[in-house]
C-alpha cells in the first residue's frame, strides 16, 4: 500500500478490508469504498468542494438530536429510504404495496377501539375510511391490528404539536370477523418535511420543494402474515407526482366520493402477504 | 415520480435533480445518487443495518467540534482524502510527488528564520535535513517559503499538547540563493489518528490499525510554481506499508545516514512544478 496513485488508490483501500473477519462488514465496506471512489473519480471534486462536503455532513450531524433526525431526512430526500424499504418489502403480486413508515409512528397509541374516530380534538369528521383486510385467497383476516395516523388540519402530527391532545389523529383498530374496518376522520393535510437545516438548504439549492402529499399512514399486523406498512394518498393533491420522499404508489391513491351526511367516503381493501413458513 | 419501484427508484430521484439550475450541483447530485443507489442495491441493507448506518453518521457528526473533525478522519481512512489530493495534484513527471496535508498545519508558525532548528523545547537535535529546491530544469529556486512540521517525541503536535511551547517542531524557512535549505530536528515519532470515536470503532471492527508512519510534513511555496504539499517518510517504520490514511509514496521515503557529531543526516531535493501560465 506504499505508493498509492490515482490508478491504485481504490485497490489499496479495498485491500485493507480484505482481511476483515466479519464477512458482512467486509462486504459492505468493499462495496462502499468501490462506489464512493467511483463517485469521487467521476465528479473530481476540488479541494474546496470536498471541504464543503465535509462541512455539509458535519452540519447535518449537528442538526440531529432526540427530536430531529437530519440524516434520515437526507436518506429520505435522496430516495435511499424508499429504496431500502422496497428492497426489504418485495411483495407477491396481488398483495397491497408498502410505503415509507416515516418518523411519526407511535408504538403505544391511545386505547384501541373498533369502528371509531381518529379525532380527539373536537374536529367534526368529514371523511369515512372503510374496507376489508383479506388474505391473498380472499379469506377475511379477523382481529388484525390496524394502526392509522395522520396530520391534523394544521399540517402537524400530535407529537409535533403540544396544542393537540395526545393520540389525536391516531387510532388502533381491530378488524371485525369479516375482516372489515370503518373509521371517521378528516382528509389529512399535506405538510413539508423539516427544511430549516442542511437538507432543506440542499433541496432549495437544487430547486426541489419539501412537500409531502396528503396521506393517511396505515400499519397492519396479523398472525401468519407479513406486517404491512403503507399509506393511502389522496387524489388531487398537487404534490402526488413530486413527493419529497418518493413514497407515492398509484395503487395507494384513493378518491373520496360524497356520501350521506356531508361526509366523503373512501373504500380501500388491503390484501396481506402470508408470512414465510 | 408516482409509483416508485425498485426498478425505477434511481431514475425517479435523478429526475428531481434534472432541472437544478446550478450545473455543477446537478452533476454532483446526479453522480452521488447514481453511486449511492448502486451501493444500496449491491449490499441490500436490512432496515436494521440502514438504521445502524444512520446512527454511525449521526455519532460521527456529534464527534465533530472545533478541535476534532471525525468526518475528515472518515474520509482519510477510506482513502478519499488521498484520492481527492491526487486528483487535484496531477504532477508532471520529474517533479516531487505530493502527500496528504493533514489537520495539523498552522498558517502562522513562529518567526521565519533560515537554517534553523525545529526544536523549541530544549530537545537535543539528532537529525539534519538538508537539500535543494529546484525547477524542473534544475535551476535553483531561491527564496521559496518552506514550512515543515512534525510530531514531538511524545507523538503529539504542539497544537495537540499544551505542554509544548507554541511552534515546537515547526519551522518556516526561506531557501538560499542556491535553492538550499538545512534544518536540525529529531526523527518524527509515529502516532495514531484519533481512534476513540466512531471511525476508530469502525477501524477496530474491520481489523485495521490507526497508525501513521513517522513523517515530516513539508509545504513549499514559490512565485511561478505550484504549491507543493508533501511529506518525507522515514525508512524502517513498521507502518510504511499500512499507513491508516494512505499517504506514503516510495519516492518520499528517506533513509537517514550517520553523520558527524552523533547526528543522522537526510538529503532530499525537491523539484517544483511550474504554475500554468
Beta strand % of chain A: 15-25%
**Oligomer state of the chains in this structure:** homodimer
Number of helices, where a helix is a run of at least 4 consecutive DSSP H or I residues of chain A: 6
The termini of chain A sit apart by 49 Å
CATH architecture of the largest domain in chain A: Sandwich
Order of helical and strand elements of chain A: HHHHHEEEEEHEEEEEEE
The chain pair with the largest interface is: A-B, 78 and 78 residues
Report the average pLDDT across residues of chain A.
93
Number of DSSP strand runs of chain A: 12
CATH fold descriptor of the largest domain in chain A: Protocatechuate 3,4-Dioxygenase, subunit A
The main pleated sheet of chain A reads as:
5 strands, mixed
CATH homologous superfamily identity of the largest domain in chain A: Aromatic compound dioxygenase
> What is the helix content of chain A?
25-40%
Low-confidence stretches of chain A: none
Per CATH, the class of the largest domain in chain A reads Mainly Beta
- How many domains, in number, for the residues of chain A? 2
- Structural class computed from helices and strand pairing of chain A: alpha/beta
Rg of chain A (CA only) = 23 Å
Shape of chain A: globular
Short description:
2 copies of one chain form a homodimer. In chain A, 26% of the residues lie in helices and 19% in strands.
List keywords for this structure.
homodimer, 277 residues, alpha/beta, Protocatechuate 3,4-Dioxygenase, subunit A, 2 domains, 5-stranded mixed β-sheet, 12 strands, 19% strand, globular
